[in-house]
Specification:
Keywords: Signal. By secondary structure, the chain is of the alpha+beta class. It has a domain of 164 residues: 2-enoyl-CoA Hydratase, Chain A, domain 1. Bound molecules: 2-acetamido-2-deoxy-beta-D-glucopyranose (6 copies).
Length: 658
Amino acid sequence: MFGFSGPVFARGLVLALILSSAVSAHKDHTGEKTSTDPCKKISGKLFVPPADALACQKSFPFNETLRTSVLQTVSRIFDFFTFEDYYLNSPAPFQDSTTNIRAELARIGTTKYATDYDFNRDLYNFANQLNDGHTAWYPNCYNTFQNFLPAPVVMLNMNGTDGVYVIPDLIEFIDQLGTDFTDYFDTIKFNWKRLAGAKVVSIEGMNPYDYIDLIAKNVSGNYLDRGVRANSVVSSYRIVNTDFSQRFGDLAGPTFVDQNSLTFSVIPINSTKVETVEVPYYAGYYGNKFTDGATFWLNNCIATSDTNGVDLRTQQSAMVSNMVPVRRSPLPRGVINDFTRAKAFGLPPNFQPNLPQVNESAGVIKSYILPDGKTGVMFIGSFDGDYVQFQTDTVSAIQGFKKAGVSHVLLDLTNNGGYICLGEFLHQYLAGSDFGYAGFQSTNRANSLAVKIVAANIKQNLTYTYYSPLNYLFVNGTPIPETYNYIKPSLPLVVNGVSNPTSQRYADYCTPFDVPIPRKAPFDLKNVAIVSNGNCASTCAMFSTVMNERHNTKIAVFGGKPGDVLQFKGMAGNQVLEWSDLDTEIRTAGLKNDPLAPPDLLVNANFRHNWRTAWSYLDETTPIAYKSELPKYRFAYTKDTYNNPQNLWTFVVSKLFG
Ligand SMILES: *[C@@H]1O[C@H](CO)[C@@H](O)[C@H](O)[C@H]1NC(C)=O
Ligand SMILES: *[C@@H]1O[C@H](CO)[C@@H](O)[C@H](O)[C@H]1NC(C)=O
Ligand SMILES: *[C@@H]1O[C@H](CO)[C@@H](O)[C@H](O)[C@H]1NC(C)=O
Ligand SMILES: *[C@@H]1O[C@H](CO)[C@@H](O)[C@H](O)[C@H]1NC(C)=O
Ligand SMILES: *[C@@H]1O[C@H](CO)[C@@H](O)[C@H](O)[C@H]1NC(C)=O
Ligand SMILES: *[C@@H]1O[C@H](CO)[C@@H](O)[C@H](O)[C@H]1NC(C)=O
């Protein structure tokens, strides 16, 4: 039974008066000085009405110099993007991501924009709709707010019928935003509490599933699979750092503040009548302090010392050697930047597992033995965080399971991403070292500048860069020597009729790990299963895919729109390079002055890209990102499982191992 504490108000719903029109003077703003500075109006506030936040964001005039410079950088970064030509005609079932990237950049280069925000927003939308969380534009100037709707939604199966509901734990969840948030709704006399658990009949006049699908298409981004994106639209549980957390979802917690309210038709709990209610958003501020427009710009919008890369050859040797604690280069990462992690709210404590943890001091991995006494659960919140502790946590969980006589293991990967080598570590640990290489074959693009970078790495015997041959193994498992050029001669690759030469195939060099790996699998791999919501990105996607492709592991995915396909992996690129990482590679190779090198960003922003491709074992000519792989099991969330991991594990274990 689903229980919640806290009062539930059953007063009549109050239609909120939608927010001030005081900013309308800035509507078609062209950068001319107005009498009031819209940024000054909101300075020092934790929460502000979204229209006020947007007025501040739109107070900076469009600047042609910035546009030209940003687009030159971005366009040259795209030369390194391994999936560029796949986008010309994205293979089914991912066809809705099809985009002509160069044509879009040309369009953005000639569009007339009124404000700097409008330009950045267009560039953001274009990159976001590539639906590859490894390839994205993050203008920090405009990522300083998060818009919050006190009505996150979920897709639940109730008594055998699918429907969209306002989260039943609304009151406990929203109360965590504090009185700065909730007092506002009291002031405008909006009773959001009454919406807890309400059945949603329509959103903005649309069927609620269609509206969720629209947000999945327009807003969510990150994942090639639209079914997985539908799960990002709604609320879900996760681990952030080492704490249980609940996501708002992209409908109720978007980064941009261009929506003031959302109109719902709902049937509140204990009612049979459909009521229409306009729910206001209220935006939280998470950027650097400012007092007015000029200081907002200075503190949030112009390039910082971290925006662009560095020449590692001129860094203190201590700093460089700090970067090689385990491997020879900084640890390669494949991770989604989910900005909502920075301002995460907890999973209300009454929905967190009440079983004792197998090791209470464990970090990002929370492990339990279910009451059946035979199933061990590892909830792996991410493959990120403390690199060594991830490994020691795995050892203590598996040893704890063994000691308790556990025979089955469930891995919960809901809302996960992280270090490539930790994905390989977990696979290696579960499969045993006798299994051999735990990762995928991979490649990067052999564009002219990349070819020069590798040559410069070899010539200077650089050992701490991502392009260094020392980072990789030949596909037969032997290390690539520092003098071996793996990118020249390049290999031909034709994608959608376009020639896109690539490096030779190589393997990741993740070993040795920091803990001893058992030679044999500690548990029969038939008794190891994975569960997630498909928001399993990057390293998580590579880990689930390698388990599927090499061991035919049972994978169960929850949620998605009923009737739609839902992949178990959200986005399975491979290594991502942030702009500053790529720039560091270029500078350290001594090629910053090369005519093909992207110029420095002048603004406080990041354009990241998927730098390596991982190739499928099932079809060696297809990147795993484009290999449709469906879970063997698919379940709807219920009111008892959507925010309650322990209930979900108990349910899924009965289906998978029962
Ligand atoms: C446009 O941005 C450039 C680079 O930051 C700056 O030098 C220039 O003054 C800006 N132009 C205007 C009109 O503000
Ligand atoms: C589901 O069934 C329970 C028990 O019969 C009932 O109380 C509840 O109102 C039903 N919920 C919905 C959404 O139909
Ligand atoms: C979705 O995107 C389309 C195309 O960019 C746009 O016309 C539409 O207004 C957007 N809808 C919403 C609800 O964001
Ligand atoms: C619904 O009705 C039940 C039974 O009267 C009551 O216990 C519960 O608090 C009500 N829930 C809401 C949200 O009003
Ligand atoms: C529990 O985890 C911590 C942190 O990873 C580790 O140091 C400790 O050895 C573990 N304890 C056991 C009993 O495995
Ligand atoms: C390159 O550097 C590595 C690590 O310092 C060293 O072991 C190796 O001998 C060097 N190779 C050449 C060709 O200088």
